Amino acid sequence: MLATLVDAPFDEPGWVYEEKYDGIRILAYKEGSRVTLLSRNNIDRSSSFPAITHAILALAPRTLLMDGEVVVFDRKKVSRFQLLQEGGENVRYAAFDCLYVNGQDLRRQPLSTRRVALEKSISGRDDLILSRRLAESGLKAFQIAQQRGYEGLVAKRLASFYVPGRSRDWLKVKVNQEDEFIILGYTKPAGSRQYFGALLLGAYSRGKLRYVGRVGTGFNRKNLASLFRKFQPLKSKQPTVEEVLRLDGVTFLRPDLVAQISYTELTSDRKLRHPVFLGLRDDKATKDVMLPTKRHLPTRKRAGAP
């Protein structure tokens, strides 16, 4: 179940407002003595996060299916995708939904019921945490997210069922802009930098892959070298996007890799302002990387934004 992006915080009866985590979305299955952690594109990440696998195995329910996010928190208890990519310590699983427990299918039960089942299932564990609810008011929750430096918040209708796909019963409001973009190529390094200078980025819009600019910050020597090795088998003589033909000193790549990028805004000509590279994502297919657009709230009475 995926949240729909909206352009402003709101406050409505019957909704709850949770922290939006900056990690890797994972469905956690427990079937007897076996635990499987699956990403959004069905990659088994169980061996990548053994501590979480073992923690879920120790839970009381014999069968369990949870939805949540694998995260690493910084010193201010803010989840950071970059820390997770860098192999940060104290990896946690932030669980926010329970779909099955002890053979019972909860997907057609309201979120309020599923949350109670989730709380009972992971009670007493330090390595498995419940998603944080920020405030009863959506406007206050957004202010808290701003003050603490969270990526944003997710608003969820308490009466909603768990339905796979993009939903209007889960709505997300961003505080900090982070999105996925496709790597189209790289430029030559300059000065003391090695391997490459900047990455060329793109995203799909109306079925067409478009160039959205370049990112040259957020790298260290280790990830410059690691990325450069990954790029070599993807070299292409022709660009995927015609616009990058006009750029000098570019090595074109097949559009197979997805990067997580932080940025301040998307300009009127659809280019990224002040982008920063955070890491690669292997849990999202390139065909699903869409140019970010904000969507308005559903038609209903809206409260003013803070």
Primary descriptors:
six-stranded mixed β-sheet, 5 helices
Q: What is the strand content? A: 35-45%
Helical segment tally?
5
The separation of the N and C termini measures: 28 Å
Largest sheet: 7 strands, antiparallel
Q: What gyration radius follows from the Cα positions, in whole Å?
A: 20 Å
* Low-confidence runs of at least 5 consecutive residues: 296-306
Helix-residue proportion: 10-25%
Q: What is the typical, i.e. mean, pLDDT? A: 90
Tally the beta strands: 19
Query: In sequence order, what are the helices and strands, one letter per element?
Result: EEEEHEHEEHEHEEEEEHEEEEEE
What oligomerization state is this entry in?
A: single chain
Assign the structural class, choosing from mainly alpha, mainly beta, alpha/beta, alpha+beta, or little secondary structure: alpha+beta
Gross morphology is: globular
